[in-house]
Structures are given as C-alpha cells and as structure tokens.
Design goal:
The structure is a single chain. With 354 residues, the protein is of the alpha+beta class. Helix content is 39%, strand content 23%. Helix 1 runs antiparallel to helix 3. The termini are far apart.
Length: 354
C-alpha cells in the first residue's frame, strides 16, 4: 500500500471518528430528555459530554490545521450547539461584589457529611462562623447531624438562625426569617429524602426545598472492592465493572423517580419556589432537567468561572444546585472552597424582581 493510500485511509478513519463524535455528542445533549429507565445508554452519554466536547474541540483544530474546512464544519456546529451546556459549568464574567449591599436575601446549600462524625462540635461551629461571615439568611444542610457528643448543634445555631425546620434524619433548614409551614418528603426504600419550608421574608412567602437525592453508590462499591483485595480476595475486573455499572444505573433510575416526586410537589406550590440541594447528578441529566423545570439555574444566571461542587477524589463535577422561580432574580452565585466535607457549599443572593 502506497504512502498516498495510507494517508487517505487515515484521513477517512479520522472523518468517521469525527462523525461518530458528533452523533454521540448530540445524543448526550438530549440524553436528559428521557427517563433513564429503559434508556440507560442514552442517559449515560450525558456524563461523557465533557470528554465528547474535548474530542470535538480536538478535531476542530485537527481539520483546521489540515485546511479541510468542509470537514471542520461538523465539530464546529457541534461545539456551537454545546454552548448552553458549557454555560452550566463555566460562566464568563465576575461576581457582583456589591450584591450583599443590595435588597434581597442570601441562601446556601451544603452537604456537610455529618460534620465528619466528630464529637467535639468544632467543625459545626466553623461552618456556622462561615455562614455568618457570608451573611447567609437561609441555609439548607444535607447529611446533617444535630449531635456533637453530649451537645446539640442546633442549640448554638439558633442564636444566629432562630428558626429551624427538621426533615427526615439528616435534613434541616435554618432560617433568620420566620418559618410558617413545613413538609417532609421521605423517599421509599432509601435514606435519602426532601423537605420544604415556607418562609416569611419581609411579608412575602417563599417555599424553600431542601433535596438530597440517591447517591451513585460507586464510592462505597470501590471501598468494598478495595477491602476485599486487601484481604486477599480476588476481584475480577469484569465483575467489578458489572457491579459498578449496575450500582450506577440503579442509582440513576432511583434519582429520576425521586426527582419526579419533588417536581410534582413543586407544581402544587402557590408561592414562589427556591430549590436547594445535593442532586448527585450532573447538568443536562434527566434529574437536572426535571428539577429545573421552568425555573432558573442560579449559576447560569449570575455565577462566574468554573463551577464544580464535589471535592471527593478527582471528580470535579457539579452536583449541588440552587434554582429559583422566575418571579425572583439572582444577584450573585458562588461556592467557597471549604474542606469540611466532600462537597463545597454554594451561596446565592436573591431578590424579588422589580
């Protein structure tokens, strides 16, 4: 086979890969439009979108360097269609430094990982100090523990947050404004749950949801596999892969059902809704789309830079969110790089539209 023939064959294969990347990327972009049950492969492509986008960027440069402008159109069009998705992870611009001086209130969502199960209470107090520093008016905690040895964290929190709504086991909403009504929403066959509190903020009632959806189960699966290997038990790669895949898909399907339950409850609200929580899912997934509905993603509205909220391992993913009703307006949205949990807290300043 001559050199020219080899070059043509290589170019043809690169063209096929470019086309397949385009197809997979578009399927991923719309993978969150259908429930994952029965559409697992399509739903899983949502999680591969960052890699697919990187691949399209590579081929855009590749065809540009070769001056094959007609083939460059495929990755170019694909990347242009990915701009809304990229906006859920990265936002140009800077944080409004004057937001705290503007009328409104600040809300935060934070998975505190049981405060590290410490008995001293120091971590809970450090987090309270940070909430004071950030001038938070309402905070939604997931994986919350009220007990630190023989003391209750709520006893010290109530000095700054005089109002408190308790959900199932590890869910709580603290507020500096009066709480008028609450509801707990336990999910079947799991420890995860949701809750809401209707809060009177200067005469206006808002319903604040605190949501903690099903975990992926991958971390616990890997820990069990590591312990088994440490004991000399052989864990086959294919067995581990099947277990991980099964665990993730089961969690994905469970989250979708839980998201539907919360979304249906939100539709019944007669007052503006704010949704906070650890969704354990990425932007553009079925869970993200279901929870977002016709609301506004706070980060896309007024965030800045690259947003990821999970700090465990090397998974730089965004799974913690604050959404709000269109009757409200976001003034600022950011996270703090705190090391108390495997999550970062997110903060948002919100005002009523004038």
């Amino acid at each position: 086979m001559g050199k020219l023939a080899v070059q043509k064959y290589f170019s043809f294969m690169m063209l096929i890969i470019t086309f397949l990347l385009m197809i997979f990327t578009f399927v991923g972009l719309f993978g969150g439009d259908v429930p994952p049950g029965g559409n697992t492969a399509r739903a899983m492509l949502v999680y591969a979108l960052p890699l697919l986008i990187a691949g399209n960027a590579f081929f855009l440069i590749y065809w540009l360097v070769l001056r094959r402008f007609h083939w460059m159109i495929m990755p170019l069009v694909t990347l242009l269609c990915c701009i809304p998705y990229i906006g859920t992870l990265y936002k140009f611009g800077s944080i409004n430094e004057k937001a705290d001086a503007m009328p409104g209130f600040k809300i935060s969502s934070y998975n505190v990982a049981m405060f590290g199960r410490e008995t001293s209470g120091f971590m809970a107090q450090d987090i309270l100090s940070e909430m004071k520093k950030q001038k938070v008016d309402i905070v939604c905690f997931q994986e919350y523990s009220d007990y630190a040895g023989d003391k209750k964290n709520s006893d010290s929190y109530k000095e700054y947050f005089p109002y408190m709504a308790v959900g199932k086991s590890d869910m709580v909403i603290y507020s500096r404004y009066p709480i008028k009504n609450t509801k707990n929403m336990p999910f079947e066959m799991t420890n995860n749950s949701a809750m809401w509190a209707e809060i009177d903020i200067n005469g206006s009632i808002y319903r604040v949801y605190n949501v903690h959806l099903e975990t992926t189960g991958i971390n616990s699966m890997l820990r069990r596999a590591s312990k088994a290997q440490a004991k000399g038990i052989d864990v086959q790669n294919n067995t581990l892969y099947n277990a991980l895949y099964g665990s993730y898909t089961v969690g994905m399907i469970a989250r979708s059902g839980q998201a539907n339950t919360v979304a249906m409850d939100m539709r019944d609200s007669e007052v503006p809704v704010i949704v906070c929580g650890d969704f354990n899912d990425v932007p553009y997934s079925y869970v993200y789309n279901t929870m977002l509905g016709d609301k506004v993603d706070g980060f896309k509205e007024c965030g800045s830079g690259f947003m990821h909220t999970f700090r465990g391992g090397k998974k730089m993913v965004r799974i913690d969110y604050i959404f709000h009703d269109k009757a409200l307006e976001g003034l600022s949205y950011y996270k703090k790089d705190l090391s108390y949990s495997d999550h970062y807290p997110v903060f948002m300043r919100i005002a009523t539209k004038q």
